[in-house]
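Q: Two folds, back to back.
A: First:
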Amino acid sequence: MAALTPISRKPLSLVLPTVAGSGAVLGLFVGTANGSGLLGIIIGGALVAALAYVLTQFLDNEKMGRWITLALVAVLGLFFAGIPGFVLGLLAGWFYGWFIYWMYEGRYRARLQPYLTSGQVLWHYAFRVICGAIFTFLITPILVVLPLSFNAQDFFTFTPEMLRFDPEGYSLKHYRDFFTNNEWQRSFKNSLIIAPIATVISVSLGTLAAIGLSQSHVPGRRAIMAMLISPMIVPLIISATGMFFFYSSIGNFLEGTLGMNKNFVGYIKVVLAHAVLGVPFVIITVTATLVGFDRSLTRAAANMGADPVTTFFRVQMPLILPGVISGGLFAFITSFDEVVVVLFVGSASQKTLPWQMFTGLREQISPTILAVATILVVISIALLTTVELLRRRSERLRGMSPA
């Protein structure tokens, strides 16, 4: 890496406190892990500030300075925490080697408007740091679960072999148990049956409701909207209790009067209950898509002789389709991950994957839960990525963002 051309070197009175603060953050985590967070903050801030002073005042070669920082922090990590500390030290060393020169050379202003004040620049980066901290706070529990799912032992904690990165400490045994165990596979199949059907019902009803409520002439549409999205607002335990009594009456009617199979009726009740939970998500996403919809297109189609059904499928649906699919994905995730309602409404024959996970935690503490949780996280990430891509496509179709 060639040395970068400096923009404008900043005074040490700005650089040192900033890099010391970043070092204190790392010291907080390291010190807490070793029994003293306050001592970690002091040592971390002092070491990084001293390193920044030496690199900027006595070493003109930025490339060499970065390599020195990388090697120094990695060696410290290896000394205090072994191989895991060495890996984390490499990452921290790369970051501090870049951050020190990024501050000292004034590159943090390179992509900002030159007329911004120091306070505005500070808020620009402070806002991003706050967002990153919140994201880290939310994502850390998930990052802990993922490696634990490869534990070779039946524990919910990291074993010494895992911490040493010993291959003997890792295994796919929990994933094999998930794909070969009849209880897990039956619950997984139930989720794959219930969630798609509930999603189709949610999308159909929610899309029609959103289109109807988007019309300005509909009386009391705000009150109707509030009632339709109430399942998303009301505490789930209250909704589940109400659904229990409501669908019990429906189940008695279907079984006693119509003579339907009890197991089949159980699936109907769970599907309808999950569809109710998914409708609000579809209504909200489709309504948001309809905000930028050009009503003159439907009037033009009517003037050309198209009936309302043709207008909907040929003109309106292609433009709101990203919102419809996004709402469907949210409805699918809601149904696939839901456990409270199915406990009230369903029976053992309709045991879904979250229900089986709940049972595994309450009754037998099965480590297979970690593997299942990892699979669900991967599925959720794939679905949310799809939602984001559809959102961007919807904005492009409505002319809200460049192609």
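A: Second:
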Amino acid sequence: MPVESVGSITPLPRLQPLAAPQGAQEAAQAGGFAEVLNNILGANQRANATADAAIADLASGRAEDLHTVTLALAQAENSFRLLLEIRNRVTEAFQEVSRMQV
């Protein structure tokens, strides 16, 4: 069995770095921190509404499969955990600033 030379292997395409979502970049430029928080809160509310609708569809028998319901619940949970972690970090930052001596 012949062995191909290394030069004949095609290289993999270069990976592009991940960029922040467009809404977060625009909010950071336009409205600042409060706008970013409002966008995150809105995304959390939409994820919770989607999860609630998926659960209602499952209970009424309209759900196609259990996987979509589970995925909606997992997305809502991740959104809530992100929101909770942001709250914790903001609280820690506020406490650190309040401990500073003037």
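Q: And?
A: The CA atoms of residues 20 and 64 lie 33 Å apart.
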